[in-house]
Amino acid sequence: MIQLDGITKTFADTTAVDNVTLELRSGKTTVLIGPSGCGKSTLLRLIIGLVEADAGTVTVGSHTVGPNTPPEIRHRMGYVIQDGGLFPHLTGRGNVAILARHLCWSADRVEQRTEELADLVQLPLDRLDQYPNELSGGQRQRISLMRALMLDPDVLLLDEPLGALDPMIRADLQTDLRDIFQTLDKTVVFVTHDLSEAAFVADRVVLLRKGQIVQTGPMSDLLESPATDFARDFVQAQRSILV
Ligand SMILES: Nc1ncnc2c1ncn2[C@@H]1O[C@H](COP(=O)(O)OP(=O)(O)OP(=O)(O)O)[C@@H](O)[C@H]1O
């Protein structure tokens, strides 16, 4: 379980996260949604320890996360960002293996795990020999997900992983990701702007505004009983051509 207690983070005169207390349940997918600049990415970066809180604590399992968090704890969290964040000078295979090589895994073990993950994310093995600029956006994200899963982390943090993809590839990956989350039983924190994507993957949604939590609960609560005028407006702002 991940527990945030009274977390505040300010950059110069911007309070990105404002006294957030939140429990992220093990084995569940929590989606952080809210308008641009409401603090979603900063919350993920606080959880993985890339950003240090001004106040409050982040606990992952029984460990407090901070600048001195040992690598073993960070390795229990996989992190995927919008454009994949792959190293351009490494092939897909090189990107996937980077942490395992750093930890001196044998070549056989790296290869076996790579094949297992390619199967999981449904990526043809030959794609792994390409460099990122030779791959489609969807393939890059599948490789980025493999890299995040390589060490079999307990926690998966995904920051708008599908934001840059065209609608059909995005829908395919939404389905695959939801299946993967359910199969692997990881604690997942997923950031998106898109309410229908949130509804598709989330066990629970957290709506943020100006660094504060507006509402948490199942998507049905947000849709049927928005807690504030802002929550109602946020839901209504997502137009659908199907209604
Ligand atoms: N390293 C930084 N230095 C200065 N300001 C920052 C930094 N990181 C984030 N901020 C500011 O903190 C606020 C929250 O940013 P954050 O990226 O967490 O929002 P977000 O909800 O993820 O936005 P988006 O949906 O646009 O990605 C914003 O006002 C942003 O400009």
What are the key terms here?
four-stranded antiparallel β-sheet; transport; six-stranded mixed β-sheet; Rossmann fold; alpha/beta; 243 residues; nucleotide-binding; binds adenosine-5'-triphosphate
Structure description:
The protein is an alpha/beta fold and 243 residues long. The chain has a domain at 2-85 and 155-240: P-loop containing nucleotide triphosphate hydrolases (Rossmann fold). It is 37% helix and 25% strand. The protein has helices spanning 40-48, 71-74, 92-102, 107-120, 137-149, 167-184, 195-201, 219-224, 229-236, and strands at residues 2-11, 14-24, 29-33, 55-60, 63-64, 77-80, 155-159, 187-191, 204-209, 212-217. Strands 6-7-8-3-9-10 form a 6-stranded mixed β-sheet, with helices on both faces. It has a 4-stranded antiparallel β-sheet with strand order 2-1-4-5, covered by helices on one side. Helix 3 (92-102) packs parallel to helix 5. The longest helix has 18 residues, at 167-184. The radius of gyration is 18 Å and the shape is globular. The model has no long low-confidence stretch (mean pLDDT 91). The structure holds adenosine-5'-triphosphate. Adenosine-5'-triphosphate binds at residues 11, 14, 16, 34, 36-42, 193.
